[in-house]
Design brief:
This protein is an alpha/beta fold and 342 residues long. It has one domain (3-338): TIM Barrel (Alpha-Beta Barrel). It contains twelve helices and ten strands. β6 (134-141), α7 and β7 (173-180) form a beta-alpha-beta unit. It is globular. The termini are far apart. The mean pLDDT is 96.
C-alpha cells in the first residue's frame, strides 16, 4: 500500500469542482431501467449504452471518476479498446463497485446487510491490476418504526470499515456509502437523527479498523424528508440541515463528501448541492461534490433508447447534466441551465 498515492487520488477525485458519475448498476438494475423505455435487456445493449456514456465528448471537464460494475470494467468498445483505457485517456479515473448487494439481515425483519467481504482482498487486487484506483461499497438503512435498529447500524458500519481497510491495503481509495433511504413518511428531523447516528457509528468503526481518513471519500444521503412526508422542506432548508448534520458527524480530515442522489431528480439534486455550496462552501473543512447515477443518466438513457442514431443527442443531454452539477459545486447553478446548452 502506498498511502500517499491513495491520499493524492482522493484529492484528485474532488478537485477542480468535478464530481463522480456512478454507472455501476448491476445487470438486473440496468435491465429494469432499460425495460422502462423498451430497450432490449442484453449484454450487448448494456455495453453499447455504457460506451455511449464514456465516449461523451468533454465528459472529463466535469467528471473526475466513474464507478463501474464488474461486467463493465471487463468490456471493450466496438473498436476493441478496453473501457478502462478509454476512460483514462479521457482524463477520468476508473473506479469499481465491489459489494455484492444488500441482503435480508437475519434476526432483523425488514432490514438489510450488505455482503461481499468474502474473497474481497483478491478481487480488489485484480481490479487494481485492471486499472481501478478507487472502489465503492453501499449500505442501505431504512427509517421506520424501530428502524434502523442499533444492530443493523453497527453491522453495516463494521462491514463498511472492513471493506475500506481492504481497499487501502490494495492501493484503492474507498468510497464509503451509508445510505439512509428516502422511502417512507419520516420527517426531515427523523432523517437528521438517523443520519447523524449512522455517520458517527461508521467513523467510529473506520477508526477501529485503522482506516486512514484522509484517504477515503464519504458518499452520504442528503438529509431529506421521506418521499411521502406531507412536509417537504425548501432547497435552502435541506442545505442548512444537511450541513449541520455533517458538521456534527464527519471529521475534518475527510477530503470530500460526494452526495448520492437517492431517487432525487437531476434538477433537484443539483439545486440542493448548489445551495449547500452557495451558503457554506467557503468555511467547510471538506469539498462538497456529487456521485450521482440516475440523476445524471436518466434523460440520456431515455433519449438514447437503444438506437445509435440517438447517440449524439443523448450525449449532449448527459453533458449538460454533468455541467449543471459542476456549476452546483461552484455555487453557480440555476434553473435556466436546464433549458440551455452550457
Amino acid at each position: 500500500m502506498n498511502l500517499q498515492d491513495i491520499i493524492k487520488t482522493a484529492g484528485i477525485l474532488v478537485a477542480d469542482d468535478k464530481g463522480l458519475l456512478a454507472m455501476d448498476e448491476s445487470n438486473d438494475t440496468c435491465n429494469s431501467r432499460f425495460a422502462e423505455f423498451g430497450i432490449p435487456q442484453t449484454q450487448d445493449y448494456r455495453r453499447s449504452y455504457r460506451e455511449m456514456i464514456i465516449t461523451t465528448p468533454g465528459l472529463g471537464e466535469s467528471i473526475s471518476g466513474v464507478i463501474l460494475y464488474d461486467e463493465t470494467i471487463r468490456q471493450q468498445m466496438k473498436d476493441d479498446t478496453p473501457f478502462v483505457k478509454a476512460i483514462t485517456d479521457a482524463g477520468i479515473i476508473p473506479g469499481i463497485k465491489v459489494d455484492t448487494g444488500a441482503k435480508d439481515m437475519a434476526g432483523h425483519q425488514g432490514e438489510k446487510i450488505t455482503e461481499g467481504l468474502d474473497g474481497l482482498r483478491d478481487r480488489l487486487h485484480e481490479y487494481f491490476l485492471m486499472g481501478a484506483r478507487f472502489a465503492k461499497w453501499r449500505a442501505v438503512l431504512t427509517v421506520g418504526y424501530g428502524k434502523p435498529s442499533r444492530g443493523c447500524i453497527e453491522a453495516n458500519a463494521n462491514t463498511l470499515a472492513r471493506y475500506a481497510a481492504l481497499c487501502q491495503e490494495a492501493g484503492l481509495v474507498p468510497i464509503v456509502e451509508p445510505e439512509v433511504l428516502m422511502d417512507g413518511s419520516q420527517t426531515i428531523e427523523q432523517c437528521f437523527e438517523v443520519t447523524e447516528e449512522v455517520l458517527r457509528t461508521v467513523f467510529n468503526q473506520l477508526y477501529r479498523q485503522r482506516v486512514t481518513i484522509e484517504g477515503l471519500l464519504l458518499k452520504p444521503n442528503m438529509v431529506l424528508p421521506g418521499l411521502t412526508c406531507p412536509k417537504q422542506e425548501s432547497v435552502d432548508e435541506v442545505a442548512d440541515v444537511t450541513i449541520e448534520c455533517l458538521l456534527r458527524a464527519v471529521p475534518a480530515a475527510v477530503p470530500g463528501i460526494v452526495f448520492l442522489s437517492g431517487g432525487q431528480s437531476g434538477e433537484l439534486a443539483s439545486a440542493r448541492l448548489n445551495a449547500m455550496n452557495v451558503r457554506f462552501k467557503s468555511h467547510l473543512p471538506w469539498a462538497l461534490s456529487f456521485s450521482f447515477a440516475r440523476a445524471i443518466q436518466q434523460q440520456a438513457m431515455e433519449i438514447w433508447n437503444g438506437k445509435e442514431s440517438n447517440q449524439q443527442a443523448a450525449q449532449q443531454a448527459l453533458l449538460n447534466r454533468v455541467r449543471c452539477n459542476r456549476a452546483a459545486r461552484k455555487g453557480k447553478y440555476n434553473e435556466t441551465m436546464e433549458k440551455t446548452q452550457i
